[in-house]
Amino acid sequence: MKRQTLDRLNADRAEKRPVALVTETASGAQWLVHADAETGAADLHGEVLRQARMALTDDRGTSTEVEGLSYFIQVHNPPLRLFIVGAVHITQALARIALLAGYAVTVIDPRRAFAEAERFPGLEVSSEWPDDVLTAAALDRRSAIVTLSHDPKIDDPALETVLKSEVFYIGSLGSKRTHGKRLARLQEKGFSGAEMARIHGPIGLDIGAKSPAEIAISIIAEITEARRARRDKAPAPGAA
Questions:
Q1: Where in the chain is the domain with CATH 3.40.50.720?
Q2: Structure confidence by residue, pLDDT tens digits, 172-186
């Protein structure tokens, strides 16, 4: 690997920027491909570029052959992160499921009686206000946020923070009536319809969930659907 390529790869990884390293196996030529338009791989075949971006979306390395040449695609994605606002019963189930799905989980609740580490063993638990935690977290396209406290004083500041970010999923607990009131408050704060439409509310896929564990399953299913849906938005071959 050329020193310049290695330095750039290490810089991308340090900045937690998703990047794929593409190697043409016969010549050893290498390219770095990013999920966004700035690829730095102008001379890479469009079909290989498309597959590299798809590999980033799928979170899985692959190999491919295009026009008689073989390529190996190695994915370097930062960890998936799930921030859960509200240390409630649903959170206990959701956190465990999210860990199994490969997420680094942070539970946030300024109510210290709820944000007890023993209720969430092995997880990062914060009793700071969620807007402070989320602002400091450098949210990115591999971050998801769920608000479950059912308390506007806690959930709303979190939503106001994440609606300005690039997170791929935002979900909030509550009935349709509760969500309508939530949107009205956000509108008063100056958020547009397009911005508020990013919020999944009521949260979770409609699978008839009743218990905390069932609701947690519906939430992680909706998060997965939102994440995987980005495959359909992958740039066309040759896009720059």
A1: 80-228
A2: 999 999 999 999 999
